[in-house]
Specification:
Two copies of one chain form a homodimer. By secondary structure, chain A is of the alpha/beta class. In chain A, helix 1 crosses helix 3 and helix 5 crosses helix 12. Chain A is elongated. The termini of chain A are far apart. Chains A and B meet through helix 4, helix 5, strand 2, helix 6 and helix 7 of A and helix 4, helix 5, strand 2, helix 6 and helix 7 of B. Chain A binds a DNA duplex (30 and 30 nucleotides) through helix 2 and helix 4.
Chain lengths: 333, 333
DNA sequence: TCCGCATGTGCAAGCGCTTACGACAATTCC
DNA sequence: GGAATTGTCGTAAGCGCTTGCACATGCGGA
């Protein structure tokens, strides 16, 4: 089914059909109806590839995330998708599983699609990408990785702040043995979180003992990390997790071992994903405004084109501690 | 950046550039290198729209789901995406929020993309779609909704079986007051689950009292449904949820009210999503093999083209009860 | 009656790519 | 040594759509 067949059927030219389908130009009501009728009869579906090729412009945004199974990323996607949908844009998403090679492939794929803008919400990085994207001339927003450039806006969360607040809070509750659970420590932004933990710990030098464990980004990974942590003989009174997703698994493992939360061990997460409120006990965590990040991304990519295109912007977000049930005073002794 | 510019730069024709980029035809090693070099220098990214328009064939699969935030759907997507990726296919996903109009739009969008195959994993339906998709001539797999046709394969789960097993199990534990928590009861497949509950209940006529509640498909929805259930004065000893996602919220609400699970109330879910194991207590649920469904979908769409295209297939899946910690003997009295 | 101007359509040139098909060299064979 | 291969590459015709431009009407006013 092509435009031409529809045109023939309706007894008009392809130009007219195109105009009807795009509400462009002025078309007599009677011919418009004829055309629409023909479309229906022929079950015509315009070829979107041809359309974007001929049209040259795109109403598609691209989004790349590290792990779409982690609600943190999924929420940002849904938020972006939601505003995009309202503005008659669509967004295609790709995920990288934290692998730089897949990230590069995903970016190329997005550029090949000629997206109108690209949001890169990942934790891994490939230095050459910045240059490649900057040269591509499409608006780009990075989260966490990368730095601002002509067409690149950066959204950054002050993890150190969140981490610091968490640690101080726990310290004030009497915790002196802490552990950090993370994943993919080799990747920059994730390593940064671990650094934030270590740095903060450094300030309590001598007073607080601590250790770290890494596994994969999932509840199962969190569980494994907790297992490994406890197997080491170290008995933390508080475990800080790099994100809520893993914290779920940590909690599970602790409970399995008969440890009460927060009675024996306090647990904190990061992100404040939806289910963190439904876990048991409800998770103390650090909020990252995912909804707002998605909305900001849209504005930057679509509306801020003129304004943002020539201003190397960086947006900083201050995360806030959300105290719920998974933390409490350190146990005696 | 176009093929032509690359060709000019490399001192060859566009045909040759195309050939090296697609590993098609035989190209002398030296010219191949020249071309690749030119691509790199010019930061050339082939226009995928032009490619698929000219090529005519597509290595893209489409997938439509009702609620991508529900891990059930997300898991199937990830499974499909994973096998697709291994076979050098890509999959674009769209979600409908359980709205038939969005479903129709999504299908049209997918047809416009000229996907090589389409998986429709939704709970809402629009009758005309079957005909439209059947006429489209691309391989389609439906989950739950729709019926088999020339190019349409149907994957169906015997919910009644799962429901029946759950109810029998609970009955054997002494439960005589049960409730069902669902969402979007107006939609066929979801209503079917409710029907399965009611039908099974009917067989215990007189012996078992029961009621139902509906809300939205999310933990928050589950919570609200539980709230509404308990506010009605009815005191179930077991609550069966239409899926695990909502069950999380139900559990939360019960705990909030000081009810112990399963001491006071047993709770069951459906789907066996990953976090159902990490909830607390771990959820008794009915397993639906999402991984396998994703893999089957791929085979049907891509590999089974010749075989499946002309055989109106329907695949039935028997779900199994997975007993964990959220269910137990009914309380005395 | 003729001109000017909306208003509706059609023509045709692309958009950037793939892919027959054929041209041309460099081999190879008898 | 000439013909038949074989290996490389260029030419050009689309793929299905958008869109600038020209053209054909019908109208009112001079």
């Amino acid at each position: 089914m092509t435009l031409e067949e529809v045109a023939r059927r309706a007894g008009v030219s392809t130009a007219t059909v195109s105009r009807v389908l795009n509400n462009a130009g002025v078309v007599k009501e009677s011919t418009r109806r004829k055309v629409l009728e023909a479309c229906r009869e022929l079950r015509y579906h315009p070829n979107l590839h041809a359309r974007s090729l001929a049209g040259g412009k795109s109403r598609t945004l691209g989004m790349i995330v590290s792990n779409i199974q982690n609600p943190f990323f999924l929420d940002i996607f849904c938020s972006l998708e939601s505003v995009a949908f309202q503005h008659n844009y669509e967004v295609v998403v790709e995920h990288t599983d934290y692998r730089p090679t897949r990230l590069v492939a995903a970016v190329r794929s997005m550029l090949g699609r000629r997206v109108a803008g690209l949001a890169v919400i990942v934790s891994e990085m490939e230095p050459s990408l910045i240059e490649e994207l900057s040269a591509s001339n499409i608006p780009v927003v990075f989260y966490d990785v990368g730095h601002p450039a002509r067409n690149i806006t950066n959204i950054k969360v002050r993890y150190e702040k969140g981490m610091q607040r968490t640690v101080e809070y726990l310290y004030s509750l009497g915790h002196r043995r802490m552990a950090f659970v993370g994943h993919h420590a080799g990747l920059d932004p994730l390593h940064e979180r671990l650094r934030a933990f270590l740095d903060t710990m450094g300030r309590y030098c001598g007073e607080v003992r601590y250790t770290t464990a890494v596994s994969s980004d999932s509840p199962a990974g969190g569980r494994q990390a907790a297992h490994q942590l406890l197997a080491s003989g170290f008995e933390p009174t508080a475990i800080l997790c790099v994100n809520d997703f893993m914290a779920l698994g940590v909690i599970r493992e602790l409970r399995e071992r008969g440890l009460s939360i927060p009675g024996d061990v306090s647990v904190t997460g990061f992100d404040n994903i939806g289910i963190s409120e439904f876990s048991c006990p409800a998770l103390t965590t650090v909020n990252i405004p995912r909804r707002r990040i998605g909305e900001m991304a849209f504005e930057i990519l679509v509306q801020g084109q003129s304004s943002a295109m020539n201003s190397e912007r960086e947006i900083l977000i201050d995360p806030e501690l959300v105290v719920r049930e998974s933390t409490g005073p350190a146990p005696e002794g």
